[in-house]
Every structure is written in C-alpha cells, then in structure tokens.
Amino acid sequence: MIVVGGEALIDLVPVAQPPGALVPRPGGGPYNTALALGRLGAEAAFCSRVSTDGFGESLLAGLRAAGVDLSLVQRGPEPTTLAVPSLAPDGSAAYEFYVEGTADRLFALPEALPAGTRALALGTCSLALEPGASAYEALLRRESGRGLLTLLDPNIRPALIADPAAYRARFLGWLPYVSVLKLSEEDARWLGGRVSDWLAAGPSAVVLTRGAQGLVVRTREGDEYTAAARQVTVADTIGAGDTVNAALLHRLSGPAGPAGGPVDWPGVLAYAAHAAALTCTRAGAEPPYAAELSG
What are the backbone dihedrals phi and psi of residue 23, each rounded to the nearest 5 degrees, phi first? Predict the structure, then answer.
C-alpha cells in the first residue's frame, strides 16, 4: 500500500462562462496524488483530517470512487480549506488560500500505518501550516526509520509561508528522511539550493519537473535521465505535478524501487510525463485512469 498524507481542499476554479464565475473542484496536492494513485490502479490510502461539511463529504466521495482506502482519515467539524487559482495564458496556476480554522490543519499523528505499507508521500500546504505540519513531519521521520520509501513534494505555496528562511531550514531537516525528492523548477528556485547538495543530504534521487520541457532526474550515483513532455492542448496545469507524484510512486514502490534494485528511470519518467500530459488536457485536477496509459 502507498499512503499519501496531507491536505484535501476545494479549488474554486475560474471558468469562462458566466464571466467571473468560480466552480468548486476537489484539490490539494496530496489529495490529487491519492486520487491519481487510485485511478492508476495502485493500492493507496489517504492520511489526513477532513471536514464533516459538504465539501469534505464530496472530497471523500471522490477518493472512494477511485478505490482509495480512507481508514486513516480523521474528521472534524471545522470548514474545508479553500484555494482560488488564477490561471495564466499558458494554463499555469497561482493560488490564494483560505486556511484559518480549517479542518486539515488539526491533523494528529496516527498510531500506525496499515500493515503492508510500502511507501509514504507528503507535501504542499500540510507541511507549511501548524499544528498539522509538525504531525506530518513526525510521520515522515517515523516511517522513514521503518524503511519505507518516502517521497517529498514541497510544492511551495509562498502565500502560506510566513517565514521563508525558517521554512527553507526546515526543508533541509527533512531531507535525511526522504528517499525521492520531487519538485518543480519554480520550487527549486524558491528554495535556493542545489540538487547536488540535496542528494548529499539524503535522497537517492531528485526529480525535477520543467513544464513544457519535461522531467529530469539526478541520482545519488551521479546518473541523469530525462523525459520529454508530451505535446497536448493544455486546458490548465492544475494537478499535473501531483499526477507525476502518483506515477513515480506507482512505479517506484515495488521491488525495483530505489531501495530494492536498479530503477528504469527512463521508463519511469516517460510514464510520469504521459500521465501528467493527460491531466493537463482537462480543467482542474483530473488525473488519468490506468487504461488511458496502456497505449
């Protein structure tokens, strides 16, 4: 099983008609990653705290439909976090957030993950907002110590980070517990570090997403592999990076993952690029199903 920890929220996505209208869609980087894993046919569980309000119910319904295990989901009466993306002409998104007093910030460390858990993924808002951030950090440290494959996607949201210097220092403290670090070029620039330094700190591989330029991975052994982005008509890029997370986890969490033997990085990256491209053809975070990637 692959466990994804982090927030579930509602994206209020702008639409063309009527002018100025916002349509609620399920979102949140970890939520999208768990949804994508389910659709890709992986055995996945979501680990979060979700509101009992109507938005929270709809979020869980989406995960159930994708076959995602919800036994690790905590519930609370606080409202669901809201995100309002603004779309650039190329489909890329910037976000404003409504997070005060929301349910996902009150996540508590679970006693244990299910037996048979092979991998854990964390990232995005959940690692920036207390008190939940400390609980997710404790989960990362504990499960890394148990030998799980861990994937970290910082997915930086500057509007949520009150003290950038403190966050950057905290990020470096996570790296000894991370197997695979995945981040965008924008994240890397904001963090201000170098891939070589991050690899020296702990991860066995760093995967960098570069938008229309595709993906690149560098490994601790000094190898580098790339995959070109697929040419598609882009509706928006919401959820594309989260789909990359899911594709990486799906392919890496088996016996041939970083801890178990050689990794076919060209094949892994090509699979991730294909999945992300399909997500970009749809409005909002709508990752593909396994059958769509079989061709």
Answer: -110, 125
